[in-house]
Amino acid sequence: IRQQWEHVLENVVYEINNPDRFFRHYMMSREDPDIEGSVTSRTLYDTFRDLIENQLPTDETDLVGYVDGMVETSELYVGFTKANVDAFSGRAQKRINRRLRNLNDIQSSHSRTLMLRIFEEFDEYDQILSVLRLLEVFMVRWRVSGNQTGSKLDRIFSELCSDAFDTTDP
């Protein structure tokens, strides 16, 4: 586990301006354990500690599996920040990365919570591109309407991750 954790830190701390965002977005994007609501920078440590001590032992995921998921996801997350994700090839990859660049240009880092979940849930390029386009439109409208970013957006995207992929109540 220590090696995996160090790998996550190498990926995130040295590559991302605000590394706490990765940990917050990762925790809010997971299906198991499901964290509803936002995780702020101030509550990150306590939330993570509670997750390790109380939630993981009772859920289907163990600590090793959770950290392994972090390793895989950290590389994808760095790709989001650089608008360079290699999940697809050729033209599809260029289109995905163009959407990611647009999202970065409009400073929509909060949407990365949902983006992590989208890349986990969907395999098809068309589905991912469609959701990225919708995210781009939503974030532009959010900004134009004068709404503030922050915990409100984190809560929206966290709740979407909790509810939107629930097949019993989509």
Give me a quick take on this structure.
It contains eight helices and no strands. The chain is mainly alpha-helical. α2 crosses α6 (112-121), α5 packs parallel to α7 (125-144) and α6 runs parallel beside α8 (151-163).
List keywords for this structure.
single chain, 170 residues, 8 helices
Structural overview:
This protein has 170 residues and is an all-alpha fold. The chain has one domain. It is 67% helix and 0% strand. The chain is built from 8 helices and no strands. α2 (19-29) packs across α6 (112-121). The longest helix is centred in the middle third of the chain and has 20 residues, at 63-82. The chain starts with a helix and ends in a 7-residue tail after the last helix.
What topology does this entry show?
Layout lengths: L1 H12 L5 H11 L14 H12 L7 H20 L7 H16 L6 H10 L3 H20 L6 H13 L7
Helix pairs in contact: 1-4, 2-6, 5-7, 6-8
